[in-house]
Each structure stands twice: as structure tokens, then as C-alpha cells.
Design goal:
Helices cover about 0% and strands about 55% of the residues. The protein has no helices and 13 strands. The protein is elongated and about 60 Å long.
């Protein structure tokens, strides 16, 4: 009987708290856990004027500083099944996961920004796993990965009908626990496109996660193609209704 992996069963709940204060955090950097990978597939944005999972092109303001906290909860994000597509559950690995992502950005010349952030996993809980089961159990909460990166507007202005930006993030594996972070250094390049017709604002993101491949039973956690799309209707300068869609496709399974 072959085994397959079902990731992110049920609906994750996302919430975001925005603030503009400077927080100094001291991180204890440790070697990444062997055959670790980031279980949380939600890739939160870096700025408060982005969406939830969709990056947008905005007026930045030279030397403007911002901070952002994003929370992501998932129920049963890692479950082992008997065969692909069947509801033949063999073992729950992770039942509850809560990830907090903290990001700080600094805008430069109203065209570029640099950012730094890190993940904290206060909750990563699963049931007991039978002895000899060939997969790591949920190791509990702790620190996740650290990310450093930059974004630059390539074409157009933020208020133009069309504008294009590029972003790249370097992710350092600073977690020592299974499922909290990547198993090695990874890179996330991304293109950010924006259309601003008269009444709506449309944004599209397309990028990759280039990572060290990690085995998981008969599957493999490898590089990913990531996409995101949003449409927004601004009521005024402070309020906007936004609908978002995002996801990804792995190149090895």
C-alpha cells in the first residue's frame, strides 16, 4: 500500500495586526533541524499597505518605516493517508499550528524598500506517533526562519494604470525543530504587477520558492511556484474592500 501526504486540511484562519513602532528582538540562531521544512504554506506580506497574501505597489515615502505582525492558524495541516485522494487516514502528524510573522520595512527614494522579518511558532501540536513510524512528530513551538530582502519598482508609478515591481527574499534556516522552518537556505524571487483602472485595483504576484529538497515518505518537499491575485475597490483613502486568491504548485511530489 502506498502512502501519500495531505497538507492543510480544513480552512486556515488569517489575521493581521498593523503597527508602526520599532521592536528590538534578540534571536538565538541555531542550526536547522535535519530534514526540516516549513509546514505553513501561507506566505504573508511584508508591509501594512499590502494585502494579506498579495503584495502591491504603493507610494512608499523616502525613509518611511513600518512594522507588521501576521498570524496564521491551521487545523490538521499534516495528515498521512493510505493513498492519494482517498479518505483513508493513517496518522495525524500535526493537529494545530499557529505561526506569527513579524516584518519590518524601510522605504528608499519612494521606489525601493528593504525588509527583515522572522517567524515565531507559539503552537505546533500533534498526537503521539507509534514507535517506528517513519516521520518526525510535531516538536512543539519555537522560533522559525529569518528572512531578509528587498523590493524595487521597475516600471510606472504607484498611481499609473500599469506598474511592475520585483522582490527577492533570502530565507535563513534558524529553526531547530521539525516543521517550523526550512531545512536549508532558500530564495524567494517574485514579480509584482498592478493595474489601476478607474474604479478598481488589480494586483498579481508570480514567484518561486527555491529550496533544498526534503523527503517525506514517498513524497518530496521541493521547489514551488507561488501565485497570488487580488482585486480591490477603494471607498476612500482609508477604506478598501479586497478579495484575494493565492496558492502554489510544487515541482516534486
Amino acid at each position: 500500500m502506498s502512502n501519500s501526504v495531505r497538507v492543510a486540511q480544513g480552512e486556515p484562519v488569517h489575521s493581521k495586526v498593523r503597527f508602526a513602532v520599532f521592536i528590538v528582538c534578540l534571536l538565538s540562531i541555531s542550526t536547522a533541524h535535519a530534514q526540516s521544512f516549513r509546514l505553513d504554506h501561507f506566505r504573508a506580506v511584508e508591509r501594512p499597505d499590502d494585502g494579506f497574501g498579495v503584495r502591491r505597489i504603493n507610494e512608499l515615502g523616502h525613509l518611511r518605516f513600518s512594522g507588521l505582525v501576521t498570524a496564521d492558524y491551521a487545523h490538521d495541516p499534516l495528515v498521512i493517508e493510505g493513498r492519494r485522494g482517498a479518505q483513508n487516514e493513517l496518522q495525524k502528524i500535526v493537529r494545530h499550528e499557529l505561526v506569527l510573522k513579524l516584518d519590518f520595512t524601510l522605504a528608499l527614494w519612494n521606489r525601493a524598500l528593504v525588509f527583515a522579518g522572522f517567524d515565531v511558532v507559539p503552537l505546533l501540536k500533534g498526537p503521539s506517533i507509534p514507535a517506528g513510524f517513519p516521520i518526525a512528530r510535531a516538536g512543539g513551538g519555537g522560533f522559525g526562519d529569518v528572512s531578509l530582502g528587498a523590493r524595487v519598482r521597475l516600471l510606472g508609478e504607484a498611481q499609473d494604470f500599469f506598474s511592475l515591481a520585483a522582490q527577492v527574499a533570502l530565507i535563513a534556516p534558524t529553526s531547530s525543530g521539525a516543521y517550523r522552518g526550512e531545512g536549508g537556505v532558500s530564495v524567494r524571487p517574485e514579480l509584482i504587477a498592478q493595474l489601476r483602472p478607474k474604479y478598481v485595483r488589480i494586483n498579481a504576484n508570480l514567484g518561486f520558492v527555491i529550496r533544498e529538497n526534503q523527503p517525506l515518505l514517498n513524497a518530496r518537499v521541493g521547489d514551488e511556484l507561488r501565485y497570488a491575485l487580488s482585486a480591490g475597490y477603494p471607498f476612500n483613502e482609508r477604506w478598501e474592500a479586497i478579495a484575494e486568491l493565492w496558492g502554489g504548485y510544487t515541482f516534486k511530489d
